[in-house]
Amino acid sequence: MAIKEGYLVFDIGTGNARVAIVETTGEVVSIEREDIQYEIEPLYPDSRYFSPELLWKQLIQLAKKAIAKAQHISIKAITSTSQRQGIVLQDQDGHSFIGLPNIDNRGREWEKEFSNQPFIYERAGRLPSALFSALKLVALQKRQPQLWDKIKYFTSISEWVAYKLSDVLVYEPSQATETLLYDVQKQEWSEELCEQFGISVDLLPELKSSGSILGEITPNMAQMLGLDEKVLIVVGGGDTQLAIASTFAEKGDVIIVSGTTTPICHITDEYSVDSKRRAWTNAHTNKNQWLLETNPGITGLNYQKLKNIFYPNESYQLMEEEMSKLTTIDCVSTLGMYLTDEKNATKKGGFIFNTPLEENLTRAHFVASALWEIACTVKWHFDKLCEVIPYDLPYVWACGGGFQSETLTKFVANLLQKEVRIHQGFNQASVVGSAVICNKTLGVNSALSGDIKAITNEASYDEWKYEEWKQAQQFFFKDQYSLNPNKIEKRDIYVR
User: Fold this and answer.
1) H or E stretch at 31
2) Three-state DSSP class for 143?
3) DSSP codes, 78-133
4) How far apart are CA 392 and CA 357, in angstroms?
5) Whether residues 44 and 83 fall in one domain
6) Between these two residues, 459 and 39, which has the higher pLDDT value?
7) Local confidence band at 479 (pLDDT 50, 70, 90 cut-offs)
8) Inside any domain, residue 271
9) Nearest to 428, CA basis, from 68, 5, 21
10) pTM
11) Are residues 303 and 385 in the same domain?
12) Does 226 have pLDDT greater than 60?
C-alpha cells in the first residue's frame, strides 16, 4: 500500500475520548475511542472531575492502537481538540493534578454573587454561569482551598494534550472564550474580568492562535508513540469551532453542530454582543472572526441514552428504519431545559401520550418524539439567533454525529424551512476540521472532499406539533420560561 500523509488527532469530548488518524484529504483512516471516567466530588451538589493522569494513559493507548491500524500513513503533525469549558489544573512542578469537565457544575451556588453582570457580558460575551471555567475555580476557592492553592496554571483540555506532547503550555482563543476571563473583542486576557472572579491573571498561559506550531514532539513522546521526532505539534481549538471548520462555512453562514449539545452559530467578522443577552459571542479559530451562538443544551446525549433503553442490542440503522415507517408521532417528549438559560439544570421531564395506551404505540414513537424535540429546540434557538442577527439565506450547514439520523435531519429542514447542507465526513466533523487546520498551517494543498448532501425542506411543516411541544414544556416546567399565550391555542396539551 502506498504511503500517504496525514495527521494524528486527539479529540476529547464530553462522553468519550477519541484518537484518530486522518489523511490530508480529510479521510478518517482509523479511530479509537474510550469512555472518560468521571468522579463525583461530594462537597458540591452537581460536580464532576477526572484524573488527568488516568485520561492521559487512556489517550496514549488509544493513539498506539490508531497508529498501528494506519501504518501506511506518514504522520506529519499532531493536533488536539476538546469539549469547550473543560480545564486541567497544573501545579508548581508541572504536574496536572485535576481535570474539571464542561459537565462540572460545582460553581452553581455562587452564580448570583457577581452583580456586575452587564460588564461581564460585554467583555466575555456571556453571563457568568457554572458552565464556564471561572465559576469552577471560584468553587475551589470557596470550598477546596487546598486545591486552589496548588494551582500554578490552568488550560483547556485540548491545550493540555498539546502540552503533554510538546512541553509548551498555551491557551487557544476559541477555548479561552469559555473561561469568562478573556476579552472577546480585544482578543486578550482581561485583568478586569480576572478581578471580578478573584483569579490572578498570572494563572493564565500565553495565548496562541489555532494553527500555531508549538514545535516538534518531545523525544520521549515520539519514542512512546513510535513517531518521527520531526512531527510537529499544531494548536487546535474548541471542538465546535473545528467542527465548523470542516464545513468550509463562510462569513454570514449559520452552522448547526449536533453533538452532546447542539450549538447553532452564525459566523461574523464584526464583533457584537446581544443587548438582550440571547446569544453568546465566541472567538472563532479564524482570527478576527466571531461566532454568535445559541445552544439548547443537552440533546445528543439524550438520544444516545434512549437508544440504549429502547434499542440496547440493535443498530441505529434499524432504529431509523422503524421510525421511517411512522405516519405520526403519537407522543411528545420533554427531556431537557431547552428554553431557559440553565443548560445543565436537573429538572423533571417525560413523555406525554394518550391514555389508555393505544395499540400502535411502539418504541419507535418514543425515540422519534425525542428527535422531534431536538429539532424543536433547534428551531427555538435558531429563531432566537435570527432575532439577534438576521439570516435570510435559503440553507444552513450541519455537521456532527446527530445528523447521521435522517429522521432528525428531515425534522430540522422542515421546521427551519431551510435546505440542510452536509459535507462528507460530517459525522467526524471535529477530526476533519483538525485536518483542515493542519493543512492550512503546513501549506498542504490536498483537496478535501467537496461532496455535499442537501436535504431539502417540505413546502410546510406542522406548526401545531411545534406549538404542542412548547405546551408540553410549559406543563413540566411551569413558570420556568415565558411563552406568548397569544400564539398557543387554549386546548388540552395531550397528543390528539
Assistant:
1) strand 28-35
2) helix
3) EEEEE-TT-EEEE-TTS-EEEEE-TT--TTGGGGGG---HHHHHHHHSS---TTSH
4) 43
5) yes
6) 39
7) very low
8) yes
9) 21
10) 0.90
11) yes
12) yes
